[in-house]
Every structure is written in structure tokens, then in C-alpha cells.
């Protein structure tokens, strides 16, 4: 008989005791069976660390107990969401739509005259004040304000944006998301 088969036989001989101990800890037969299975897998994986001649049953009970408490600690950090309410609030809009929108915006931005593109990038994307942008461009503050206004209007025309409702998810996605929150 090989070392492995002897270990295997001794391991299997402890299953009824392990299961009884697991049921006493978990207070649930299914969870107890999972604990015993996890214990056997870990014991088999770590059998080279078991010292022959020592108490196998005590070693296995220690593994089972440690596994039980590890699972308990893990469950404390988990939130039960059996009805899906928490998951529904975590929904996000598909990234591909944002990617397409960004591509469209870049194309539209390229269509602007250089002075308008420069002004809107300085104000809108770089965060400069109108005064700072005017100083960078070497023109009056009113000129920068005019360029930004014309650039915004032109971008709206190119992108066919008529109001705030054109931003964010489309009407169908918004309706689905809002329905999930109401339920």
C-alpha cells in the first residue's frame, strides 16, 4: 500500500466525524458538506505537511475550523442581495456608447475653426478662466467669450444636440434604469 492510499484511507475514515463537527459549526447541512469538502481538498493538497504518527483527526479538525472562521469573516464583508435591489443600483451605462460619443465629439471638434477650437479647449477642457485664455491667445476677454460661444453653438449643430436630454443614456436606457430604482 502506497503512502498516498494510506493517507487517503485515513482521510476518508474521518469524514463522518468531520461532517458532525462541521454541522455543529455551520448549523446547516449544505454548508457543512461544503466545509468538509473544502477541508478534504486542502488536506489532500497539503498532505506533505502532515507529520505521520501525529493525530490526523486533530489536524483535519483544525483545517475545518480555520476554514469555517475564514468563511465567516468573508461573509461579514459581503452584503446579501437576494432580491437584486443593491445590484440594480450599481448599474452603469454601456461604455461603448461613451466611446462612440467621444469619437463623434472629436470629429466635431476638428471641424471648428482653429481659433474657436483653441478657445473652447482652453476654457472647457483645460479649465482656464476667460481672462487666462485671453492672455494665452493674446486677445480681449470678450473675443474669447465670443469664440467659446460660437464654438459651443457650432458643436451643438454638428452633434445635433438640442438640449440636456441629449446627454447621458438614451430614453430607453434611462427608463430601464429608473424602473429598476423604483422597484
Automatic annotation (TrEMBL):
GO molecular function, one term: DNA binding
Pfam families linked to this entry: Sigma70_r2, Sigma70_r4_2
A GO BP entry: DNA-templated transcription initiation
Domain of life where this protein originates: Bacteria
InterPro entries xrefs: RNA_pol_sigma-70-like, RNA_pol_sigma-70_dom, RNA_pol_sigma70_ECF_CS, RNA_pol_sigma70_r2, RNA_pol_sigma70_r4_t2, RNA_pol_sigma_r2, RNA_pol_sigma_r3/r4-like, WH-like_DNA-bd_sf
Keywords on record: DNA-binding, Sigma factor, Transcription, Transcription regulation
Ranges where the RNA polymerase sigma-70 region domain occurs: 16-77
Domain RNA polymerase sigma factor 70 region 4 type: 104-155
PANTHER family found in the cross-reference section: RNA POLYMERASE ECF-TYPE SIGMA FACTO, RNA POLYMERASE SIGMA FACTOR RFAY-RELATED
Family: Belongs to the sigma-70 factor family. ECF subfamily.
NCBIfam families xref list: PRK12547.1, sigma70-ECF
Protein known as: RNA polymerase sigma factor
Amino acid at each position: 500500500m502506497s503512502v498516498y492510499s494510506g493517507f487517503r484511507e485515513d482521510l476518508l475514515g474521518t469524514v463522518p466525524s468531520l461532517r458532525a463537527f462541521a454541522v455543529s459549526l455551520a448549523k446547516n447541512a449544505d454548508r457543512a458538506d461544503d466545509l468538509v469538502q473544502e477541508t478534504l481538498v486542502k488536506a489532500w493538497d497539503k498532505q506533505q505537511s502532515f507529520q505521520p504518527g501525529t493525530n490526523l483527526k486533530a489536524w483535519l479538525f483544525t483545517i475545518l475550523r480555520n476554514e469555517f472562521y475564514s468563511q465567516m469573516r468573508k461573509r461579514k464583508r459581503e452584503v446579501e442581495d437576494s432580491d437584486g435591489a443593491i445590484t440594480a443600483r450599481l448599474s452603469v451605462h454601456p461604455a461603448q456608447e461613451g466611446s462612440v460619443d467621444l469619437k463623434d465629439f472629436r470629429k466635431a471638434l476638428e471641424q471648428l475653426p482653429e481659433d474657436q477650437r483653441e478657445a473652447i479647449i482652453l476654457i472647457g477642457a483645460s479649465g482656464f478662466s476667460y481672462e487666462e485664455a485671453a492672455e494665452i491667445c493674446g486677445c480681449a476677454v470678450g473675443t474669447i467669450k465670443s469664440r467659446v460661444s460660437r464654438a459651443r453653438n457650432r458643436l451643438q449643430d454638428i452633434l445635433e444636440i438640442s438640449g440636456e436630454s441629449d446627454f447621458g443614456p438614451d430614453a430607453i436606457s434611462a427608463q430601464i434604469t429608473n424602473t429598476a430604482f423604483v422597484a
